[in-house]
């Protein structure tokens, strides 16, 4: 049962205004903010034309819309709680307590804080976070939904669809969605059978039954506004970059049709001049129920032409790496996938933070038809403050002989090939199912681990200078170091812990009594390949329970982990970062 908490809706406007229950005291917020630093991204936009600047401004407005969607999708009370926090801050004259809570909201992108011991707890008067987030009914359990789908398999594709919101079939819910279809003709036009299906359910509402509506209906107002702004952005940039304008128009339509193929095809195959943008709902990390729902993001990017050309010239013959992977496959890949080096202008929603790189789209069919695009965020990957923190941690956790092994170039190359790693290897199980369907809540963790390992596997097969290879190897180890035991819903951290434990077990790493690590570099290729083969096998088999057992075995946490974690915390300084952008701040 959810803990029912009533949000405060009114405040007395006088000097006696007090802060209602449920708002964290200043001492608790200080604990988190003391471990938080701010980095600012301010790429030079002076060479943009008037039309390009206008398009950037429209994309920023789309970003604000998607930011709201992201926060709403993760917690059903997010928008209301933030509005009330701002009102309270204004009426109290912006004291430290409310200022800190506003900063916590920005850091966590919602009213649920990550604490120093890695718990997720409310810092505003809202309900605790639940696995359903706000893309399934908040009172629904995975077991209840699985039981329902077992009786109604015809609804599986829609309820577990990547871009649908699941609701209980109550009269209020059905009337609301039918109202959207009746008032917004554009949505009923692109979803012609949905009204009929909902009217059929509305004849006999049943709160124990479920149905799903596409994002374009669930978020009709926001996505209709985004459609208009993207269309306007395309008009503004048409003379400067016709291909980018075409992509924006296609993506605008995608948001209404809930089908991303047109936008993804023009995005991946387009050759843009200065600007690029990730727009849409792609990544599923925030879905703690089934791991299948994508959450909204916008990333506005400025192309580094010289760095992009230099990097593209270094890539080639990726089919040879695919053929060398330790699994049986006759998979053929497109080798001309575009790679771009960019500075982040602004990020919103799921993309906000210090995300270093992206490869999209994730859809296996679109990937086969059109390829994928890799976006490397250079002003994050090479930010001096971020590297300095990594270097401090590395030197405090490893023996002195490894002090100079880590370098920015190693992380850059490993990250690039991590993204390529998503493109290589298993993308469907032996039954032909996509991995999110087959492995459900373990799909993201297994896929991210595969990409990590493919990266290290491939880079070991290149004729790289010894210092470069050593920096890549050190980056691969640094990636696995955890400052606190991961939660099961943290896909990245969970797969990093699996790697760390595997590396310890197979002798790539050893830990002394003080928690300092020694890297046995001579064992690196063999140990990486052994884990990669196991991950590829699990993905190919597509058995969720077998994969869960594997993760259960390799995510143990004990004394060696605590000692390493303590050394990380001692050296790292800030544990979290708030990113601010000159273009919007």
Architecture overview:
The chain starts with 25 loop residues before the first helix and ends with a strand. The chain has 26 helices and 13 strands. A hairpin with a 5-residue loop joins strand 11 (509-511) and strand 12. Residues 1-15 have low confidence and may be disordered. Helix 12 (242-257) runs antiparallel to helix 13 (261-269), helix 19 packs across helix 22 (466-478) and helix 21 (443-460) runs antiparallel to helix 24. The protein has 585 residues and is α+β, with helices and mostly antiparallel strands.
Give me the count of strands. 13
Indicate the proportion of strand residues. 5-15%
* Percentage of residues assigned to helices: 40-55%
Largest sheet: 5 strands, mixed
Rg, rounded, reads 24 Å
Sequence stretches where pLDDT stays below 50 over 5 or more residues: 1-15
Give the CA-based shape: globular
Order of adjacent strands in the largest pleated sheet: 6-7-8-10-9
Which structural class matches the secondary elements?
alpha+beta
DSSP helix count? 26
Distance between the termini: 40 Å
Mean pLDDT: 93
Task: Summarize the structure in short.
The protein is built from 26 helices and 13 strands.
